[in-house]
């Protein structure tokens, strides 16, 4: 894909600081005794975007998609295989050694690992002051030390740390030393290669706030490479989404989060943890693994894992389509030549685009989406905008809390009323109890009479049975006497 970034609205009259056009970086694969080249790993394959003064461009994507390679190729720490890198109109790729040395003062990098990026045998003064001495910014040890101490103060470290070694610092402090080294030459553009990924969350916040303060103070531009989308959203003005060496989507930060169009971007956004447990969003699970950059798929490189893949995706490489000012996407769904009108294809998308938004959809697509989801919904859960959802969640939480308080007050009032009955009710209860007691006494007396009358016939029956037994005994005795006489 060749996605040329459109100037943001706020920067419409500003010339780009850095212009990348068709950047490629291939690593040759050699095999055999003669080390013959049998293939190449296409780590970066046709990147194009701009970076404006005092702007932060976020670069996100899965591991192995070529983010770090792209950042190092822009600074020519890795020699590009093809493309143009224009810094203030001058092509860095064509610059010789002398010209490149001059440009190094304006192009710096903050490495990912704060442990391996610092020489353990050099003090902080030597690490930061080496570039100052090499480029002739200061002369004399006293002047170099003064500038190093000033840089340490700017990044939040003590000036007395100049004589210490890297092993005497924590991870966050080491990363601050790396930031001070990048600022030593007063550059215009800095590549932040996952500068906070190896740090704790609290230290991440400190480093990010430091980068933002330094950007305002020195008018810096950043290419911020990271995996954490929430961090990228906090620091970036625009975001480029990479997949397998190419940019899939490029847009302003809030536009990308509120109206992501590419299926890969939607799958990445679905993986962001939600702080509100009542808000339910279906997680998009991509099938299969990332293809090998040595043998990428034909056509769209994402078609092997795309849930909305259809006929032209596996044969035709998608081109960059500008669907809105500053919003570009490389997908056949939004290309007028290949845009489908089959609702079943659009229905497979995790999130549907907004027909009534800023995005200019191909003819007929807006009607199809309106038929699928009346009301132009963006999410499957019925929400239409990320910012509106947060406000709505906050309002729902406040309303829920107020309803809980009112329910508690009503329950408390009901309890008090039930525990304190009126005097009239008490008198009625006493009267009813006395009447009940009198009725119970009458019933008890009647029960006693019934019991005495029921006991009399039973005693008579017992007496008659005893008389019958005595007469039988007499008869038996008289019969025995007569038998004895005979």
Verbal overview:
There is one protein chain. With 486 residues, the chain is an alpha/beta fold. It is 41% helix and 16% strand. Strands 6-7-8-3-9-10-12-11 form an eight-stranded mixed sheet, sandwiched between helices. Strands 2-1-4-5 form a four-stranded antiparallel sheet. Helix 6 (201-218) links the parallel strand 7 (189-193) and strand 8 (221-225). The longest helix has 63 residues, at 423-485.
Q: Helical content, roughly? A: 40-55%
The succession of helices and strands, N to C, reads EEEHEEHEHHHEHEHEEHHEEHHHH
Number of strands: 12
Shape category:
globular
Average predicted local confidence, pLDDT: 79
- Class from helix and strand fractions: alpha/beta
Rg over CA atoms, rounded to whole Å, is: 43 Å
Q: Whole-Å distance between the termini?
A: 143 Å
As a percent range, the share of strand residues is 15-25%
Give the low-pLDDT segments. 1-10, 375-431, 433-463
Summarize the main sheet.
Answer: 8 strands, mixed
**Strands ordered across the widest β-sheet:** 6-7-8-3-9-10-12-11
Helical element count? 13
